[in-house]
């Protein structure tokens, strides 16, 4: 008898929720969902083009909606966006941390990125993030090396650690991107190639 009363109560509660539009949507999490792996791969490729997400990031939101339609059509749109943006932000922070550690490593067991040629530098920094080398990734690697050289962050330069490496680089990179000079990347690459030669001596 008690069981019947409980079932009736539950049924009435669900009907009331439907009537008031308060039906509880199942919670969604990126971790361990079908969305996680393709999103992670997408973020790796994004990182190899630009280590920062935009605000707002319409490209990322569009990608999340595409992944939802393909892998989690039953999930609430706003839940996917909310958790997806958080997941993506955390991943980009993690990617930046890994990259910074590699660039600034003083361990003799690790290669000195300051002495690497442009192609080797690009593969060393972004090898695990890219499927194939692209011009954008090469330019980003060159910008990073140029920044580190100017701020005396390369191993042989023994400069003081920066207070916020990635915040400083973001401003540095933006200045380059805002420069409308024709052939700016070729100029930067040629300058870094000369710096690499001197650095190796």
Question: Would you spell out the secondary-structure blueprint of this structure?
Answer:
Elements: H1 2-20, H2 36-47, H3 58-71, H4 77-104, H5 118-126, H6 135-150, H7 165-178, H8 184-200
Helix pairs in contact: 2-4, 3-4, 5-6, 6-7, 6-8
Q: Biggest sheet, in brief? A: none
Strand % is: under 5%
Strand segment tally: 0
Class per helix and strand makeup:
mainly alpha
Distance between the termini: 89 Å
Rg over alpha carbons: 24 Å
Q: Please trace the helix and strand order, writing H or E for each element.
A: HHHHHHHH
> For the residues shown, what is the average pLDDT?
90
Principal-axes shape call: elongated
Give the helix tally: 8
Question: What are its keywords?
Answer:
201 residues; single chain; 64% helix
Q: Can you offer a commentary on this structure?
A:
The structure is a single chain. With 201 residues, the protein is mostly helical. It has eight helices and no strands. The longest helix is centred in the middle third of the chain and has 28 residues, at 77-104.
């Amino acid at each position: 008898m008690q069981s019947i009363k409980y079932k009736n109560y539950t049924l009435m509660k669900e009907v009331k929720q439907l009537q008031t539009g308060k039906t509880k949507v199942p919670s969604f999490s990126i971790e361990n969902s079908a969305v996680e792996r393709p999103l992670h791969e997408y973020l790796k490729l994004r990182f190899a083009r630009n280590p920062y997400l935009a605000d707002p990031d319409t490209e990322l939101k569009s990608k999340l909606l595409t992944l939802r339609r393909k892998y989690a059509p039953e999930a609430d749109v706003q839940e996917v966006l909310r958790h997806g943006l958080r997941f993506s932000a955390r991943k980009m922070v993690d990617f930046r941390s890994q990259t910074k550690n590699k660039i600034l490593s003083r361990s003799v067991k690790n290669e000195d990125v300051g002495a690497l040629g442009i192609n080797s530098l690009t593969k060393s920094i972004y090898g695990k993030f890219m499927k194939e080398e692209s011009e954008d990734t090469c330019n980003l690697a060159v910008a990073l090396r140029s920044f580190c050289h100017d701020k005396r962050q390369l191993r042989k330069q023994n400069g003081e650690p920066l207070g916020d490496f990635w915040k400083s680089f973001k401003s540095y990179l933006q200045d380059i991107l805002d420069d409308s000079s024709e052939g700016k990347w070729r100029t930067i690459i040629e300058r870094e190639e000369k710096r690499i030669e001197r650095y190796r001596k």
